[in-house]
Amino acid sequence: MTTAVTRSRSLPLFEKYGGIRMLRNVIMDFYDRVLDSDTLGPYFDDVDMTRLIDHQTKFFAMMMGGPVDFSDDRLARAHASMAITHAEFDEIAALLTETLTAAGLEPVDIVTILTSVERRRSVIVRR
Ligand code: HEM
Q1: Domain 4-124 CATH assignment equals 1.10.10.10
Q2: DSSP secondary structure of the chain
Q3: Where do the domains of the chain lie?
Q4: Model's pTM, two decimal places?
């Protein structure tokens, strides 16, 4: 017998947590936290945040099993000029964990998402 628990376990995280609308709200909260950071905030001074939130929402939809493609090449190009450090990457990952926890995601699903982000450290970090 298929219970609600097993059904939700088989759903991609993207659907399990309500798709693009929920994800956009999570990403908007995430960037509120990023922009509050003294070390990370300045990187976004001249960035079109509406466009970035749209792109970041698509990237996370992809990572959560949603119907989106987002290549590592594109990720590398977007960060190539920024000379991002491991410490800055770690701070982004910590703010992401805070945001996903505040959004009510299950700890096991947060680990899945952060593992996927960690796999892209060498694509983003330059020094
Ligand atoms: C921790 C892992 C990170 C992930 C998964 C990530 C992901 C992304 C994605 C998907 C975009 C949009 C790219 C596009 O428009 O095609 C982006 C843009 C950007 N990221 Fe990251 N990023 C990460 C870390 C960082 C860090 C550590 C910084 C700065 C300290 C940073 C600064 C930026 C900036 C400034 C942009 C906007 C580029 C622009 O539109 O001109 N990112 N990031």
Answers
A1: no
A2: ---HHHHHHHS-HHHHTTHHHHHHHHHHHHHHHHHT-TTTGGGGTTS-HHHHHHHHHHHHHHHTT-S----HHHHHHHHTTS-B-HHHHHHHHHHHHHHHHHTT--HHHHHHHHHHHHTTHHHHB--
A3: 4-124
A4: 0.89
Q: Is the CB of 117 under 6 A from ligand 1?
A: yes
Question: In this predicted model, what pLDDT tens digit does every residue of 93-108 receive, in sequence order?
Answer: 999 999 999 999 999 9
CA of 79 to the centre of ligand 1 (A): 6
Instruction: Decide whether any atom of ligand 1 lies within 6 Å of the 93 Cβ.
Output: yes
Ligand 1 atom closest to the CA of 89, numbered from 1: 27
> Which residue, judged by its Cα, is nearest atom 5 of ligand 1?
117
Distance 121 CA to ligand 1 centre (A): 11
